[in-house]
Specification:
Helix content: under 10%
Structural class: mainly beta
Number of strands: 13
Strand content: over 45%
CATH topology of one domain: Immunoglobulin-like
CATH superfamily of one domain: Immunoglobulins
Low-confidence stretches: none
Radius of gyration: 28 Å
Distance between the termini: 112 Å
Order of helices and strands: EEEEEEEEEEEEE
Shape: elongated
Number of helices: 0
Mean pLDDT: 78
Largest sheet: 6 strands, mixed
């Protein structure tokens, strides 16, 4: 760069290298639990994240529908493909101290060049109640009657 001051003195700066970052933010998705699914006693979260720049970390936020923070968890890498971290471990969370109800999850992936992206929200019903029957369950208002027919003897 050439600089000229008001007295006409000319000076040159050292070379400056400029980098243009055209990489996209990382991709991140929650695969489990499914949206509108049911979680019983222990929540297992399966997250996938990838970036051409490489993923530094993936964080999971759990919150109530009203937006109150329940937990903030970190996922741990378990699969690398080339320089891209593509999968993250299943993260388990004990929900026994929480009231039955709807809870929301999001995951945020942060890559090695400072870009981040958030997953779509996943909402699921969490319960620690013991089921009252084994599947398939019949509604209590229904009954079942067995009928048998006998064949005449020959």
């Amino acid at each position: 760069m050439r600089v000229i001051d008001s007295a006409g003195h000319i000076n040159y700066s050292n070379n400056v290298t400029v980098y243009f970052d055209n990489t996209q933010a990382p991709n991140v998705s929650i695969f489990y639990p499914p949206n509108n699914g049911v979680v019983n006693n222990t929540l297992t979260i399966n997250v996938s994240a990838n970036s051409t720049a490489g993923i530094n970390n993936v964080n999971i936020t759990i919150y109530t529908p009203a937006g109150a923070l329940v937990a903030y968890l970190s996922a741990i890498q378990y699969s690398v493909s080339g320089s891209q971290i593509t999968n993250w471990s299943n993260v388990s969370y004990d929900i026994s101290g929480l009231a039955d109800g709807w809870y929301n999850l999001t995951a945020r992936a942060n890559d090695s060049i400072g870009k981040s992206n958030k997953s779509a929200n996943v909402s699921s019903w969490w319960t620690t109640s013991t089921p009252t029957c084994q599947r398939p369950c019949l509604p209590t208002a229904l009954t079942s009657t067995a009928h048998s027919r006998s064949r005449p003897s020959q």
